[in-house]
């Protein structure tokens, strides 16, 4: 399908705008939580934007080894935010990238037969895991709404007003707009909040002035990766959940584009995501997954050609090579980000609940799986010292609430829903979603 270059460019930019807030808010949250300097945060945002573009191009470019060949856009997975902050706080930033590298290699290795592993991740498991992750993110959002943990004006009236103003703008746009404007409501809310904060004298543009106009990606910018078992297990679990979510997006796009997906197509898609995660680890970016908001944009625009996504990917790479653009996002006050985070992290919880809506709640077994996994996952997150006196070889897998909750959900699902079944297939098997 031939496209007018101007129309192609505008459609590509539209896809960039639809995912931009989701793309940049992850490095801003993680970098802020880890106490990075303005220069480091600028690099993190810039490299993340660039790697979103590369990850997208890897997925759209279908070849013998990788790429699903559908008009799919990749960005950082929100599922990884809480785990990365926890890993960085407990093990250091280099451990985050060691865990990302290993999880990416794991995805590449299991890509061929992941379709068979999906049955171990039915909605009762994935829904519980995503709900746990969302709940662990809420304190991060609340701290930012107050101005950021340790800030001199923590909890000030100005910070609270900015946070709720940002949230209010997002909610009003969701209520009274449709289509593309609604799709970028979070981005608009952040921009409006930052403008108001600037008028109040709470925005410092020095990072923009100090940033260069061009830079080249630097492998292992934050140091050589370190490899610790718990962070690696955590990021592998995050990667598996992301693959399950991506599978749904693949089938939705296949339905939209009238393309029947085969096992090899899915394996190529998983492999492309694994490569993207590995590149994220090498260049100190993040794990990547399919962005469902861009699927909605394809439905709204009716333009299904891959050329538009190639353009979007190219724009992202170019934007990521210009640190001044990345630095512009780092001036957003913590309280403004906090207001947007409440909506975004709340949506993570809502996504988990939506996954759980596919579960048969008439089954007491399923209720017990959810109760125990969410209860233990959240409990360990808020009372991390509960297993402090266990032997070290056992304690190593009980330090993370997400790992504890995820393993509980997986094991209980096998015990209650899989053992003894004649077909060996879980009743809550993952369905192939249809596009609405």
From TrEMBL:
It is a multi-pass membrane protein. It is found in: Cell membrane. Keywords: Cell membrane, Membrane, Transmembrane, Transmembrane helix, Transport. Its main location: membrane. It comes from the Bacteria. It holds the Pfam family Xan_ur_permease. The chain crosses the membrane at residues 12-34, 40-58, 65-85, 91-113, 120-142, 154-174, 186-209, 229-253, 308-326, 332-355, 367-388, 394-416. PROSITE patterns: XANTH_URACIL_PERMASE. Belongs to the nucleobase:cation symporter-2 (NCS2) (TC 2.A.40) family. NCBIfam families: ncs2, NCS2_1, pbuX. This is Purine permease.
């Amino acid at each position: 399908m031939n496209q007018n270059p101007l129309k192609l460019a505008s459609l590509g930019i539209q896809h960039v705008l639809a995912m931009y807030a989701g793309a940049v808010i992850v490095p801003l949250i993680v970098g802020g939580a880890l106490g990075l300097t303005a220069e480091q945060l600028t690099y993190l945002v810039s490299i993340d934007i660039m790697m979103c573009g590369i990850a997208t191009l890897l997925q759209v470019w279908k070849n013998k080894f990788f790429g699903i060949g559908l008009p799919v856009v990749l960005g950082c997975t929100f599922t990884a935010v809480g785990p990365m902050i926890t890993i960085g706080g407990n093990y250091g930033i280099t451990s985050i990238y060691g865990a990302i590298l290993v999880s990416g290699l794991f995805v590449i290795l299991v890509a061929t037969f992941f379709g068979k592993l999906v049955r171990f991740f039915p909605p009762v498991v994935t829904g519980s895991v995503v709900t746990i992750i969302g709940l662990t993110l809420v304190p991060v959002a609340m701290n930012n709404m107050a101005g950021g943990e340790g800030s001199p004006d923590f909890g000030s009236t100005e910070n609270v007003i900015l946070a709720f103003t940002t949230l209010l703008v997002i909610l009003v746009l969701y209520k009274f707009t449709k289509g593309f404007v609604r799709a970028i409501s979070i981005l608009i809310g952040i921009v409006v909040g930052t403008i108001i904060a600037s008028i109040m004298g709470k925005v410092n543009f020095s990072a923009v002035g100090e940033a260069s106009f061009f830079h080249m990606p630097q492998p292992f910018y934050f140091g050589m990766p370190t490899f610790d078992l718990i962070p690696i297990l955590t990021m592998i679990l995050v990667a598996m959940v992301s693959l399950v979510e991506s599978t749904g997006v693949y089938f939705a796009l296949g339905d939209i584009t009238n393309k029947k997906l085969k096992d090899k197509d899915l394996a190529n898609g998983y492999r492309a995501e694994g490569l993207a995660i590995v590149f994220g680890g090498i260049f100190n970016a993040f794990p990547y997954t399919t962005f469902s908001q861009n699927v909605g944009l394809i439905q709204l625009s009716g333009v299904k050609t891959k050329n538009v996504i190639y353009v979007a990917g190219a724009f992202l790479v170019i934007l990521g090579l210009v640190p001044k653009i990345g630095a512009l996002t780092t001036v957003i006050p913590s309280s403004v980000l906090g207001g947007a985070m409440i909506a975004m992290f709340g949506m993570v919880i809502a996504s988990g609940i939506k996954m759980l809506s596919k579960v048969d709640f008439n089954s007491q077994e399923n209720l017990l799986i959810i109760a125990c996994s969410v209860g233990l996952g959240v409990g360990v997150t808020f009372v991390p010292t509960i297993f402090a006196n266990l032997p070290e070889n056992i304690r190593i897998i009980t330090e993370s609430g997400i790992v504890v909750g995820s393993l509980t959900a997986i094991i209980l699902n096998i015990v209650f829903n899989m053992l003894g079944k004649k077909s060996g297939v879980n009743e809550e098997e993952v369905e192939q979603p249809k596009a609405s």
